Every structure is written in structure tokens, then in C-alpha cells.
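Input:
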Amino acid sequence: MNIDSIKNGYVIDHIKAGKGMEIYNLLRLDLLDCPVAIIKNASSSKMGKKDIIKIDALIELNMDILGYVSPDATVDVIKDEKLAEKKKMSLPEKLTDVIFCKNPRCITTTEQELPHIFHLTDRDECEYRCAYCESRGK
Amino acid sequence: MRSVIDIKDLSTTELNELVAVAEDIIQNPDKYAHKCDRKKLATLFFEPSTRTRLSFEAAMYELGGHVLSMSDAGSSSAAKGESVADTAKTVSCYADIIAMRHPKEGAPLVAAMNASIPVINAGDGGHNHPTQTLADLLTIHREKARFDNLTIGLCGDLKFGRTVHSLISAMTRYSGIKFVLISPKELTVPSYVKKVIKEAGAECRETTDLLEAMPQLDILYMTRVQRERFFNEEDYLRLKDSYILTPEKLITAKKDLCIMHPLPRVNEISVKVDEDPRACYFKQVLNGKYMRMALILKLLEIK
Ligand SMILES: [Zn+2]
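Output:
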């Protein structure tokens, strides 16, 4: 794979340096057959250092995970080797099964099939609270 | 179809409406005696709380309705491994409305997400207990004839006391409210609750001294200081008497102070205070029944 030329896929740019691997794992990119590249500590005029992920296929991307792990990231959607769309991430209002409730008194501890849902309760503080017990997500 | 899981599920207009309906029920009980004819309330109590269950059941009977009780819920379906979701779906086939008590936080929300009938949270662990707050609100309204311009003293365990947090959340909606938070240093209000007060623009002051705060208060809301909240017995013994209400401590209080407590009490209010006309905690119990009646009517959309 030539990491500069993607036919149809994504360039996830401006990932906070060091967060690339976490996103790779959370998005389960290890399960993909297509070429995937992670660039660590690329130099950035804006951020100093940043991580970049390139995916050479138009898979379904979980933008909530991206927005949660690196709210400043951008996603370039490439179609036929051309930039088709540029998406800016932000902290999502709601997270489902991205983070998990650790409160031992929460109903999610006894009913394992329940989705772990968190709502953004304070954007400035990046604060998420469990939909069931309202304890703070970490 | 609506459920009430958290006091925040009700708008200020709705809180005021519920209080108005409850006042009307008190004045004209006969008018409401058949409002819920042939309707059934299912009380699903996954942990024992006899007083709350009795209140819901009395409320439904006074509306002419029936009660299906699963008071042994803890030992039956849940013990067989049935999920809260499945229980909610099953009970939806029999009843018109559910009141659920559960030791796990968020269980009534799970029930509401799966039931096809309204669910009322009757207490989920140490989390929410909205009908207690409704009882508190009616008591304040009956005693003070208003919700604004009140100085409210909250005394005791303000760290873990969910009824206190919920009452604060409800009262910050009204104007001119001053909170005096009276507690030992170990049991002060958590920061997120203070944030709620600050964001609402309500006044708030913290003190460890009940006697010092007493003369300013319109309402004194007592809670229990539990032994198990302290690291050592010494601290507990040193502090506990400061937060026990006695007739002597009431000498400097206003003549029209309203003394409240979510009950049951252990020893945080001396029984000698019961004779004082300012003691409102047993009225609070009765008011809880009226507010549960008003809430059942609202959620069943019965006018
Ligand atoms: Zn939780």
C-alpha cells in the first residue's frame, strides 16, 4: 500500500498524539482485510505531534468512538482518489458500549446484556454519566 | 406513555400541576374515589420497603383502583434469573401502571425502556426516589403556601442523602431560594450538587453548626447521620449529638419553621419534638400518599 494514495477510504487526521493505537483497537481495525496504516507522531504545525490513520476501504466508521477518544480529529472521506468530504469530530452526545459503567451498584453489573449508555453532561469538562446510575464515566 | 424515574423527568409546570391536583384531592376526596375504577397498579418491590409500598397501595385504593403486589419479587422472578426487562414486559400484560423498587441503580429506567405501561421509580438503591421529593414538595407548599423566597436548612448526611440531592434539584427551579447546608465536614454535599445550586443562581452557604443556622430557617430538613459513614467510632460519637434535633435546639427557631424528615428516623429527631406544632414529618408521610395519587392520575392520563 502506498500510504499516500487511497482509492476509496478514510484519512483520520489530527488524532491526538498517542491516541492512534487506542482508536485502532476501539474501532476493531485489526479485523479488516484492507490496507490500514497508522502513523505515529507525525509533525503538525497546529498540534506539534499528531497521529494519523489511513484505511483503504469505505467501512462503517463509528464516529462516536473517534469523537470521544480524539474530539479534535478530522476524517477525510476519499472516493475515487478524490477528497469527497471532510468531517470534523466533536464529543458525541451519547456513547453506547464505548465506555463501561464501573459502579458496583449499577443495574448494568447484574444484567450483562444491557448496553452501556453514557450521556455527555458537561462538554467543557468532557464529562459523561451513565444513563442508568448517573455515575461518572472514565 | 410516560414514566417518572427521576424528579427531573417532571417540568416545573408539571410539579405545580401535581401539587394543585393533590390539594384538590385533599379538599374533595370523593371526587377522586372512582377515578381509577378497574385500573391496576403493580407494585414490584425487589427489596423490602413496606412504608413506600403501603403508600402506593393506599394511593391506588383511594382512587378506586386495584393493586397487584409482587412484594416477594426479590425471592421470585429475579431469583430465577429473569431480567428486569422481561419482568417489565410480562407485567405490562396484566397491569396499567408499575411502581418499582429495586436495589440496583437504574433498574426502574430499564423497566421503563421495556414496559408498555408507565413506570414510577419507587426508589433505586441510593440513587433516585422521586415520589419522596413529591411528598416533600407538597409538604412545603401546604406549610408555606409558596415555593419561592424560602431559606431551606438541610441537616445531617448531605453526602449520601439522595432525598436531599433530589430536593435541592427540585427547589433550585424556584426563585429566591437560599440553602443552608448543615453537616459534619465528612458528609458535605458533593460538588456536582453544589454545581446544580450555583448554575441555578440560588444562594448557598455551608456550616457545621445547626444552632448557628437555626434562626434564619423557614424549613429544616433533617436526615440521619449513620455510624457506618465514619471511619472511626470516635468521630461519630463526637459529632452525632450536634445533628440530633431536640426541643432545646429549637428555642431560637422561627415560630413558623417547618421541620421535615424523610423517615424512618432512628434518633436524629428526639420524640419530644413530635409535640411541637412545627414538626411536619408525619404530615409528610400523608402528603406522600396524595402526591402518589396525583402522579398515578397524571401518568394514566385521567383527568
Ligand atoms: Zn451505571
